[in-house]
């Protein structure tokens, strides 16, 4: 019974519960469904038309982009990982207007590889900007691009695009900027481009374009910049330029243009930069250029321009740079140059100029470079030139200049190169001790007399040959510790070669022939290995050199050092050693004590205030690092860098492996302004470049500074090159890639970020490789962080063997030091070992135009012999790397190419070596500069 009664009761209970539950659900869901109902009922009518159209548009746009994405090479597709789904307005590189139409497509420097064939341009009718520059796109530019009628900027520069420029581009009537430079486009420029009525900037440089410029360009009335350099254009300029009244920049360099310089090139009187290096222009400078007071830079060297130079140019108040070398100008230099108050560089060498150098030149007070060599100038050097305080490079060689060298030259503290060779100069050589930056001095082939001065700058090249110098060689010459090449031949010098010459450790070339010298030669490498001719026709030189008799034993090796002196020297030496030992012991014990202290107090350290700029979602903490490295135990040490010790830390909590660099503590000074310090590092953590080791963040407190970097498993370039086994795997393609990577990183840091960063210590130790042999430069910006800490700074001076000799002595820090180090690293990569003095030797052999040994060495002989010689395409690239490392060495550093130019050459241009690799000599590679 009970069970009979119970059952219905239970059922009732269950249904009651179900009811309650349902009620609850209704109460909860009612408002939701209500709002749902209400919103949908209000917006429905609008959504239907607008929304559907929008969705359709977005779908069309996204489909077009995704289709293109899938047509790209696999690695490029992964670079566009945000390109998924159907809302392209949020994708990387895309911007839309209010109606979700794509208006900007900017994927510059993504390294994308593929063609434009599959990009459906008609899907983006409102596009204003299309920037795909600095990628690896190849194939033709599609005709369909001409459909983008709103387009205002088209930038496809620095890719590998081929074929002709499509005629349809003439339809882009709103186009203001068109950049197609640094590709391999061919054919002629379509005349349709003359229809681009809005065009303001046009750059077609560095392609294979041929034929003449179309006459229709005369209609480009808004054109401000026209850059056509490095193509194969020929013929005369076919229009008068009457309508190009806004032209500011005209660059025609390195083509085969003929005929006259256009008569109205400066008709609008706004022309600032006009360059036409290495063409076949003939005839005089046109009147409009003569009156063109807006000019800032003019480079017309390497043409056949003629006319009286004295009447061809006016006064240009803004002019900074004028280069007219290798033309046929004649006549006397006008005094107008002195009135160009902003002129810093004037080069008119290798023309047919005569007459005197006017004292008016002394009024061009900003003049840095004056090169009027290889002309027919006579008269004396005006004293006034000695007052040009900024003068860096003065070249008057190969003229008929007579008289004395003005003694004021000795006050030119910025002078780096002085070449007065092959003239009729006479009298005394002035003391040049105040010219501290002077590294190249050539006074050969004159009639200079009396003695060699006691003081020179920090010379690397000294050529006083073919003069009437007499007396003994001064002892002080031995102080020239950087001297690499010394030529005193064909004079009347007598006496002994000073013993101080032993100190000239850099000396490599020496020529003392045709003098009246006697006695022993210094026993250094330069003297031992010099050829016979270097010492012939003297009175009685002896020593270890080839072809010389050994010195008789009675003559002491050091005629100027007596025995007493020797004993004093030995005592001093011993004293020095003892002091050194004390210092080393002291320093080590202090360091050890410090280390112990630090180890004992990790907790205390942690509790003191330290601040972090983790860009790593805040997970990393000082403790994690201490834990992971077991309080910086040696077994986690993976390297000792220029600034500190590097540990590998596997941060278990965060699941990351990082490299931690433990630096020396910073001084109170730099920590006095923690805000500036944090923002400095903050900026460094923002840097994102494929070839720069990522700095994740830092941790700092008074006792230590930690920098936390991305960890790279490949190790350093130095380590790979030093292991025969790894070096063999490191093939030519990989090596060229590494050089490209390093160049790209340096270019980025020097030129592409808002505040340029100089590395200061580029070496093969600082180039790390990942598992795919991609280069990553480490320690960027470290110099900058430490910059404020001067005591730390002075102890560091770059890595030996990677520092430019001409910069090693100046404390001035600029990107030139990085450029030099890059050249060393590039050579090291292809040679498989450090190039030693090769760079300085080559630069000097060029400067003194001697056919010395390294000049004639074949490139293939210095390449890393552990690999088979490169062939085909990569052979060309290896030659290009060598060329970039060795070219343009004779020029003063500020005229050598920047890292940006170097990187562009490496990444964007297909280089074809004029000679097969087997025939290229190092001398061939050391070509003159030819960059604009
Ligand atoms: C320049 O434009 C005018 C009309 O705007 C046209 O008649 C002329 O043919 C054009 N000149 C050239 C050389 O294309
Ligand atoms: C200059 O422009 C005018 C009108 O814009 C045009 O008629 C003329 O043909 C142009 N001159 C040259 C030389 O192209
Ligand atoms: C150039 O200047 C000279 C003298 O100042 C003047 O006589 C001449 O008309 C000017 N020429 C032009 C084309 O402006
Ligand atoms: C000369 O050069 C200085 C510095 O570059 C500049 O500020 C000045 O405006 C220039 N003067 C003229 C007349 O162009
Ligand atoms: C030294 O100068 C003389 C004369 O100028 C020249 O013939 C010789 O080749 C030079 N020596 C070297 C090593 O350059």
Automatic annotation (TrEMBL):
An example molecular function term from Gene Ontology annotations: protein serine/threonine kinase activity
EC code(s) of this entry: 2.7.11.1
Protein family (similarity comment): Belongs to the polygalacturonase-inhibiting protein family.
Name of a matching Pfam family: LRR_14
Localization (cell): Membrane; Secreted, Cell wall
Keyword tags: ATP-binding, Cell wall, Glycoprotein, Kinase, Leucine-rich repeat, Membrane, Nucleotide-binding, Phosphoprotein, Receptor, Repeat, Secreted, Serine/threonine-protein kinase, Signal, Transferase, Transmembrane, Transmembrane helix
Reactions this protein catalyses: L-threonyl-[protein] + ATP = O-phospho-L-threonyl-[protein] + ADP + H(+); L-seryl-[protein] + ATP = O-phospho-L-seryl-[protein] + ADP + H(+)
TM stretches of this protein: 570-592
Organism: Fagus sylvatica (Beechnut)
Membrane topology designation: Single-pass type I membrane protein
Main location: membrane
An example Gene Ontology CC term for this record: membrane
Top-level taxonomic group: Eukaryota
Annotated ATP binding sites: 662
Limits of the Protein kinase domain: 632-912
Enzyme class: transferase
Name by which UniProt lists this protein: non-specific serine/threonine protein kinase
Cited PROSITE patterns: LRR, PROTEIN_KINASE_ATP, PROTEIN_KINASE_DOM, PROTEIN_KINASE_TYR
């Amino acid at each position: 019974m009970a069970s009979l009664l119970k059952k219905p009761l239970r059922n009732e209970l269950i249904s009651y519960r179900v009811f309650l539950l349902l009620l609850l659900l209704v109460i909860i869901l009612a408002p939701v469904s209500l709002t749902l109902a209400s919103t949908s009922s209000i917006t429905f009518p609008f959504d239907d038309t607008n929304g559907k159209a929008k969705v359709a548009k977005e779908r069309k746009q996204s489909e077009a982009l995704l289709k293109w994405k899938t047509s790209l090479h696999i690695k490029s597709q992964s670079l566009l990982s945000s390109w998924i789904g159907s809302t392209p307005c949020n994708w990387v590189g895309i911007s839309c207007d209010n109606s979700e139409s794509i208006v900007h497509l900017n994927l510059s420097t993504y390294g994308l590889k593929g063609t434009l064939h599959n990009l459906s341009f008609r899907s983006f009718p409102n596009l204003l900007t299309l920037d795909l520059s600095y990628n690896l796109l190849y194939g033709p530019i599609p005709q369909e691009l001409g459909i983008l009628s709103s387009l205002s900027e088209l930038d496809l520069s620095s890719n590998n695009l081929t074929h002709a420029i499509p005629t349809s581009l003439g339809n882009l009537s709103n186009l203001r900027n068109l950049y197609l430079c640094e590709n391999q486009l061919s054919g002629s420029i379509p005349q349709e481009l003359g229809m681009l009525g809005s065009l303001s900037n046009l750059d077609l440089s560095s392609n294979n374009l041929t034929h003449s410029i179309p006459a229709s360009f005369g209609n480009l009335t808004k054109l401000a910049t026209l850059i056509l350099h490095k193509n194969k254009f020929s013929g005369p300029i076919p229009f008068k330029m009457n309508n190009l009244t806004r032209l500011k920049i005209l660059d025609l360099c390195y083509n085969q243009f003929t005929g006259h310089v256009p008569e109205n090139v400066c008709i609008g009187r706004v022309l600032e930069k006009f360059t036409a290096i290495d063409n076949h222009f003939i005839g005089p400078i046109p009147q409009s250029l003569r009156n063109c007071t807006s000019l800032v830079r003019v480079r017309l060297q390497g043409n056949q321009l003629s006319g009286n130079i004295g009447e061809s140019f006016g006064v240009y108040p803004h002019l900074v740079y004028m280069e007219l070398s290798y033309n046929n100008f004649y006549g006397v230099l006008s005094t107008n140059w002195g009135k160009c108050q902003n002129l810093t560089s004037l080069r008119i060498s290798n023309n047919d100029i005569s007459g005197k150098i006017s004292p008016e030149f002394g009024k061009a007070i900003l003049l840095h470079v004056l090169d009027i060599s290889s002309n027919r100038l006579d008269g004396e050097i005006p004293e006034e030139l000695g007052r040009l305080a900024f003068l860096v490079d003065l070249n008057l060689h190969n003229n008929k200049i007579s008289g004395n060298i003005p003694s004021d030259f000795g006050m030119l503290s910025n002078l780096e190169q002085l070449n007065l060779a092959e003239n009729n100069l006479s009298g005394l050589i002035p003391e040049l001790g105040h010219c501290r930056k002077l590294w190249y001095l050539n006074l050969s082939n004159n009639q200079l007399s009396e003695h060699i001065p006691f003081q020179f700058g920090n010379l690397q090249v000294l050529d006083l040959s073919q003069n009437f110098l007499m007396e003994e060689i001064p002892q002080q010459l031995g102080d020239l510790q950087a001297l690499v090449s010394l030529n005193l031949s064909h004079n009347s010098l007598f006496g002994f070669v000073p013993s101080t010459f032993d100190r000239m450790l850099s000396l490599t070339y020496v020529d003392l022939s045709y003098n009246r010298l006697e006695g022993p030669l210094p026993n250094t490498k330069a003297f031992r290995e010099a050829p016979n001719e270097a010492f012939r026709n003297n009175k009685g030189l002896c020593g270890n050199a080839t072809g010389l008799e050994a010195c008789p034993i009675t003559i002491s090796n050091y005629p100027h050092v007596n025995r007493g002196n020797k004993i004093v020297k030995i005592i001093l030496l011993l004293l020095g050693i003892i002091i050194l030992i004390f210092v080393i012991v002291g320093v080590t014990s202090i360091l050890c004590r410090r280390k112990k202290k630090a180890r004992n107090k990790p907790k205390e350290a942690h509790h003191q205030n330290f601040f972090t700029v983790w860009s790593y979602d805040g997970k990393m903490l000082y403790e994690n690092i201490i834990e992971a490295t077991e309080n910086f135990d040696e077994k986690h040490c993976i390297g000792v860098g220029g600034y500190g010790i590097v540990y590998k830390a596997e941060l278990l909590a965060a699941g990351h492996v990082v490299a931690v660099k433990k630096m020396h503590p910073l001084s109170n000074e730099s920590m006095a302004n923690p805000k500036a310090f944090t923002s400095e590092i903050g900026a460094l953590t923002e840097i994102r470049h494929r070839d720069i080791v990522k700095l994740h963040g830092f941790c700092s407190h008074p006792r230590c500074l930690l920098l936390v970097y991305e960890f790279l498993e490949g190790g350093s370039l130095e380590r790979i090159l030093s292991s025969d086994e790894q070096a063999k795997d490191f093939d030519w393609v990989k090596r060229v890639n590494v050089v490209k990577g390093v160049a790209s990183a340096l270019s980025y840091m020097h030129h592409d970020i808002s505040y340029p960063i100089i590395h200061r210590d580029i070496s093969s130790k600082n180039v790390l490789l990942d598992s795919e042999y991609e280069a990553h430069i480490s320690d960027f910006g470290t110099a900058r962080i430490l910059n404020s800490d001067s005591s730390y700074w002075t102890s560091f001076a770059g890595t030996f063997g990677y520092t430019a000799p001409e910069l090693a002595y100046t404390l001035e820090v600029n990107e030139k030091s990085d450029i030099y180090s890059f050249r060393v690293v590039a050579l090291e990569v292809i040679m498989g070992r450090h190039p030693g003095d090769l760079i300085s030797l080559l630069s000097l052999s060029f400067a003194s135009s001697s056919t010395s040994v390294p000049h004639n060495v074949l490139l293939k002989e210095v390449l890393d012999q552990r690999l088979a010689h490169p062939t085909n395409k990569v052979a060309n690239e290896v030659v290009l790397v060598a060329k970039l490392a060795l070219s343009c060495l004779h020029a003063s550093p500020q005229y050598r190419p920047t890292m940006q130019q170097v990187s562009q050459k490496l990444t964007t241009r297909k280089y074809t070596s004029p000679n097969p690799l087997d025939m290229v000599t190092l001398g061939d590679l050391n070509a003159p500069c030819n960059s604009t």
